[in-house]
Design a protein that fits this description.
157 residues, mainly alpha, 5 helices, 2 strands, globular
């Protein structure tokens, strides 16, 4: 039976909720299991099960991972796994690295052109996210971001 729904959120959260909950659990477990096979990326002095990163941007990815995981209070094993895949695959595989770089470049352009909308103020909620607020008030909505001045129409954000 094919269900026609116009809004993806309604389809996933209401119509087929149980199906997606079950499938998501399987998918998340598979990602975490796969990541256990990858070496842990380190900056230097690798120990057993670790490997030193080579690509210069891997250091930045590791810094951003650490910052993200400092704030993130939900699905931490999954987020750790996603970051590890991103760092390891980008470090040794030029095809993944370059495809990821393309996505990043496209998103930066969308942000700077004012097309990519910021997350709402104080989102994710404090119950699952511990990002410090800014002088502008709260977090999110590009508050405290140095690139905000370069966004087309950024004064209205």
């Amino acid at each position: 039976m094919v269900i026609q729904e116009k809004q993806i959120g309604r389809l996933i959260l209401k119509v087929k909720r149980q199906f997606y909950i079950q499938q998501k659990a399987i998918f998340e477990a598979a990602i975490i299991a796969y990541v256990r096979t990858l070496p842990e990326p380190v900056l230097n002095n690798p120990k057993r099960g670790q490997a030193v990163i080579d690509w210069p941007n891997s250091r930045i990815l590791m810094e951003k991972r650490d910052k993200f995981l400092k704030y993130c209070l939900f699905k931490r094993p999954l987020w750790r796994a996603v970051w590890k895949i991103l760092i390891v695959k980008s470090d040794y595989d030029p095809a993944y690295r370059d495809a990821g770089q393309f996505i990043l470049e496209e998103l930066v352009e969308a942000i700077l052109h004012g097309d990519w909308k910021p997350r709402p103020v104080n989102n994710p909620p404090a119950s699952i996210w511990k990002e410090p607020g800014t002088q502008e008030g709260g977090y999110g909505a590009f508050h405290g971001r140095t690139f905000k001045q370069y966004i087309k129409g950024g004064d209205n954000l």
